Amino acid sequence: EVLLVESGGGLVKPGGSLRLSCAASGFTFFSHAMNWVRQAPGKGLEWVSSISSSSTYIYYADSVQGRFTISRDDAQNSLYLQMNSLRDEDTAVYYCARDPQGFNWFDPWGQGTLVTVSS
Amino acid sequence: DIQMTQSPSSLSASVGDRVTITCRASQSISSYLNWYQQKPGKAPKLLIYAASSLQSGVPSKFSGSGSGTDFTLTISSLQPEDFATYYCQQNYNTPITFGQGTRLQIE
Questions:
Q1: Chain B touched by A88 (CB under 8 Å)
Q2: Does B52 touch chain A (CB under 8 A)?
Q3: Which are the contacts of A44, defined by CB distance < 8 A and separation ≥ 6?
Q4: pLDDT by residue for chain B (107 residues), tens digit each?
Q5: Interface test with B, best of A2, A58, A63, A107 (most B CBs within 10 A)
Protein backbone atom coordinates (compact mmCIF):
# COMPACT_ATOMS: atom_id res chain seq x y z
CA GLU A 1 0.00 0.00 0.00
CA VAL A 2 1.28 3.45 -0.94
CA LEU A 3 1.42 5.56 2.20
CA LEU A 4 2.48 9.14 2.92
CA VAL A 5 2.66 10.38 6.50
CA GLU A 6 3.38 14.03 7.27
CA SER A 7 4.76 15.32 10.55
CA GLY A 8 6.30 18.44 12.01
CA GLY A 9 3.34 20.79 12.10
CA GLY A 10 2.51 22.93 15.09
CA LEU A 11 2.12 26.44 16.46
CA VAL A 12 4.81 28.96 15.54
CA LYS A 13 5.10 32.72 15.90
CA PRO A 14 5.24 35.02 12.89
CA GLY A 15 8.79 35.17 11.60
CA GLY A 16 9.55 31.73 12.97
CA SER A 17 10.60 28.54 11.25
CA LEU A 18 9.30 25.01 10.99
CA ARG A 19 10.39 21.88 9.12
CA LEU A 20 7.79 19.49 7.80
CA SER A 21 8.55 15.87 6.95
CA CYS A 22 6.74 13.33 4.83
CA ALA A 23 7.60 9.65 5.25
CA ALA A 24 6.84 7.56 2.19
CA SER A 25 6.36 3.81 1.92
CA GLY A 26 4.94 1.23 -0.44
CA PHE A 27 6.50 2.54 -3.65
CA THR A 28 9.86 3.37 -5.20
CA PHE A 29 10.18 6.83 -3.70
CA PHE A 30 13.35 7.79 -5.57
CA SER A 31 11.67 7.49 -8.96
CA HIS A 32 8.78 9.87 -8.28
CA ALA A 33 8.42 13.62 -8.18
CA MET A 34 6.84 14.86 -4.97
CA ASN A 35 4.82 17.89 -3.99
CA TRP A 36 3.55 19.97 -1.11
CA VAL A 37 0.01 21.37 -1.29
CA ARG A 38 -1.64 23.41 1.45
CA GLN A 39 -5.15 24.30 2.48
CA ALA A 40 -5.93 27.25 4.73
CA PRO A 41 -8.80 26.69 7.18
CA GLY A 42 -12.09 26.64 5.28
CA LYS A 43 -10.36 27.47 1.99
CA GLY A 44 -9.35 25.72 -1.21
CA LEU A 45 -6.19 23.94 -2.27
CA GLU A 46 -2.96 25.80 -3.03
CA TRP A 47 0.07 24.14 -4.61
CA VAL A 48 3.23 25.10 -2.69
CA SER A 49 6.23 23.32 -4.20
CA SER A 50 7.40 20.38 -6.24
CA ILE A 51 10.65 18.45 -6.54
CA SER A 52 11.52 16.03 -9.32
CA SER A 53 13.19 12.70 -8.91
CA SER A 54 16.89 13.19 -8.22
CA SER A 55 16.03 16.77 -7.15
CA THR A 56 16.86 17.98 -10.66
CA TYR A 57 13.92 20.35 -10.92
CA ILE A 58 12.43 22.35 -8.06
CA TYR A 59 9.54 24.79 -8.30
CA TYR A 60 7.78 27.05 -5.82
CA ALA A 61 4.63 29.11 -5.68
CA ASP A 62 5.34 32.84 -5.70
CA SER A 63 3.76 33.10 -2.25
CA VAL A 64 6.55 30.99 -0.68
CA GLN A 65 9.49 31.61 -3.03
CA GLY A 66 12.55 32.63 -1.04
CA ARG A 67 11.07 31.53 2.29
CA PHE A 68 10.39 27.80 1.83
CA THR A 69 12.82 25.09 0.70
CA ILE A 70 11.74 21.67 -0.53
CA SER A 71 14.16 18.75 -0.34
CA ARG A 72 14.18 14.97 -0.35
CA ASP A 73 16.28 12.16 1.07
CA ASP A 74 15.81 9.13 -1.16
CA ALA A 75 17.81 6.92 1.22
CA GLN A 76 15.27 7.71 3.95
CA ASN A 77 12.23 7.75 1.62
CA SER A 78 11.44 11.18 2.96
CA LEU A 79 10.31 14.56 1.67
CA TYR A 80 10.86 17.80 3.55
CA LEU A 81 9.66 21.39 3.57
CA GLN A 82 11.76 23.92 5.44
CA MET A 83 9.59 26.94 6.16
CA ASN A 84 11.24 30.18 7.26
CA SER A 85 9.95 33.71 7.87
CA LEU A 86 6.49 32.32 8.48
CA ARG A 87 3.48 34.61 8.14
CA ASP A 88 -0.07 34.46 9.40
CA GLU A 89 -1.22 33.57 5.88
CA ASP A 90 0.92 30.43 5.92
CA THR A 91 -1.51 28.91 8.43
CA ALA A 92 -2.85 25.78 6.73
CA VAL A 93 -2.93 22.03 6.59
CA TYR A 94 0.08 20.95 4.57
CA TYR A 95 -0.23 17.82 2.46
CA CYS A 96 2.51 15.93 0.71
CA ALA A 97 1.46 14.23 -2.49
CA ARG A 98 3.10 11.91 -4.98
CA ASP A 99 3.23 12.61 -8.70
CA PRO A 100 2.51 9.10 -9.99
CA GLN A 101 3.51 9.51 -13.62
CA GLY A 102 5.55 12.69 -13.86
CA PHE A 103 2.70 14.77 -15.24
CA ASN A 104 1.94 16.84 -12.14
CA TRP A 105 -1.22 15.22 -10.94
CA PHE A 106 -1.28 14.09 -7.35
CA ASP A 107 -1.98 10.61 -6.03
CA PRO A 108 -2.03 9.70 -3.25
CA TRP A 109 -1.97 12.44 -0.64
CA GLY A 110 -0.90 12.19 2.97
CA GLN A 111 -3.30 12.93 5.80
CA GLY A 112 -1.84 16.41 6.28
CA THR A 113 -0.17 18.28 9.11
CA LEU A 114 -1.51 21.54 10.53
CA VAL A 115 0.75 24.58 10.71
CA THR A 116 -0.58 27.51 12.72
CA VAL A 117 1.27 30.83 12.59
CA SER A 118 0.10 33.09 15.37
CA SER A 119 1.49 35.32 18.07
CA ASP B 1 -0.61 32.20 -13.91
CA ILE B 2 -3.50 30.14 -15.25
CA GLN B 3 -6.73 30.82 -13.37
CA MET B 4 -9.18 27.99 -12.91
CA THR B 5 -12.82 28.88 -12.32
CA GLN B 6 -15.37 26.29 -11.24
CA SER B 7 -19.11 26.60 -11.45
CA PRO B 8 -21.22 26.39 -9.54
CA SER B 9 -19.42 27.06 -6.24
CA SER B 10 -22.06 25.04 -4.46
CA LEU B 11 -24.70 22.63 -5.65
CA SER B 12 -27.58 20.85 -3.96
CA ALA B 13 -28.76 17.53 -5.32
CA SER B 14 -30.59 14.40 -4.26
CA VAL B 15 -29.54 10.79 -4.04
CA GLY B 16 -29.90 9.26 -7.48
CA ASP B 17 -29.39 12.53 -9.36
CA ARG B 18 -26.86 13.13 -12.09
CA VAL B 19 -24.80 16.30 -11.67
CA THR B 20 -22.26 18.18 -13.76
CA ILE B 21 -19.55 20.51 -12.49
CA THR B 22 -17.77 22.86 -14.86
CA CYS B 23 -14.18 24.10 -14.78
CA ARG B 24 -12.90 26.85 -17.04
CA ALA B 25 -9.24 27.76 -17.58
CA SER B 26 -8.10 31.31 -18.29
CA GLN B 27 -6.13 30.01 -21.30
CA SER B 28 -5.97 26.81 -23.27
CA ILE B 29 -4.53 23.92 -21.29
CA SER B 30 -5.16 21.15 -23.83
CA SER B 31 -6.16 18.13 -21.72
CA TYR B 32 -3.96 18.94 -18.74
CA LEU B 33 -6.83 18.91 -16.28
CA ASN B 34 -7.45 16.75 -13.23
CA TRP B 35 -10.32 16.35 -10.77
CA TYR B 36 -10.22 15.61 -7.04
CA GLN B 37 -12.80 14.80 -4.39
CA GLN B 38 -12.35 15.97 -0.82
CA LYS B 39 -14.48 14.99 2.13
CA PRO B 40 -14.47 17.01 5.37
CA GLY B 41 -11.32 16.48 7.42
CA LYS B 42 -9.79 14.23 4.77
CA ALA B 43 -7.13 14.57 2.13
CA PRO B 44 -8.15 15.06 -1.50
CA LYS B 45 -8.52 11.98 -3.67
CA LEU B 46 -7.71 11.86 -7.38
CA LEU B 47 -10.73 10.96 -9.52
CA ILE B 48 -9.88 11.90 -13.10
CA TYR B 49 -6.57 12.76 -14.76
CA ALA B 50 -5.80 14.08 -18.23
CA ALA B 51 -9.35 15.44 -18.49
CA SER B 52 -11.08 12.11 -19.04
CA SER B 53 -9.01 9.20 -17.68
CA LEU B 54 -10.54 7.47 -14.69
CA GLN B 55 -8.08 6.85 -11.87
CA SER B 56 -7.73 3.20 -10.88
CA GLY B 57 -10.25 2.19 -8.24
CA VAL B 58 -12.59 5.12 -8.89
CA PRO B 59 -16.17 4.10 -9.77
CA SER B 60 -17.24 4.56 -13.39
CA LYS B 61 -20.07 6.82 -12.23
CA PHE B 62 -17.44 9.58 -12.37
CA SER B 63 -16.54 10.86 -15.81
CA GLY B 64 -14.64 13.82 -17.18
CA SER B 65 -14.62 15.56 -20.52
CA GLY B 66 -13.35 18.65 -22.27
CA SER B 67 -10.22 20.16 -23.72
CA GLY B 68 -8.80 23.60 -24.31
CA THR B 69 -10.46 25.86 -21.76
CA ASP B 70 -13.73 24.13 -20.82
CA PHE B 71 -14.05 20.93 -18.82
CA THR B 72 -16.77 19.03 -17.01
CA LEU B 73 -16.98 16.44 -14.27
CA THR B 74 -20.15 14.39 -14.30
CA ILE B 75 -21.31 12.20 -11.46
CA SER B 76 -24.16 9.84 -12.21
CA SER B 77 -26.57 8.29 -9.74
CA LEU B 78 -25.44 10.22 -6.67
CA GLN B 79 -24.98 8.24 -3.50
CA PRO B 80 -24.56 9.61 0.04
CA GLU B 81 -20.79 9.08 -0.10
CA ASP B 82 -20.50 11.35 -3.16
CA PHE B 83 -21.48 14.47 -1.25
CA ALA B 84 -18.16 16.26 -0.92
CA THR B 85 -16.16 19.14 -2.37
CA TYR B 86 -14.70 18.74 -5.85
CA TYR B 87 -11.65 20.56 -7.22
CA CYS B 88 -10.20 20.85 -10.69
CA GLN B 89 -6.45 21.34 -11.17
CA GLN B 90 -4.41 22.31 -14.21
CA ASN B 91 -1.03 20.69 -14.80
CA TYR B 92 -0.30 22.50 -18.06
CA ASN B 93 2.41 24.60 -16.45
CA THR B 94 3.69 25.92 -13.15
CA PRO B 95 2.46 27.36 -10.96
CA ILE B 96 0.03 24.48 -10.74
CA THR B 97 -3.35 25.94 -9.90
CA PHE B 98 -6.66 24.64 -8.57
CA GLY B 99 -10.20 25.79 -8.99
CA GLN B 100 -11.90 27.25 -5.95
CA GLY B 101 -13.92 24.11 -5.37
CA THR B 102 -17.54 23.03 -5.79
CA ARG B 103 -19.35 21.91 -2.68
CA LEU B 104 -21.92 19.23 -3.47
CA GLN B 105 -24.58 19.05 -0.79
CA ILE B 106 -27.57 16.85 -0.17
CA GLU B 107 -30.83 18.56 -1.05
A1: no
A2: no
A3: B87, B98, B99, B100, B101
A4: 999 999 999 999 999 999 999 999 999 999 999 999 999 999 999 999 999 999 999 999 999 999 999 999 999 999 999 999 999 999 999 999 999 999 999 98
A5: A107
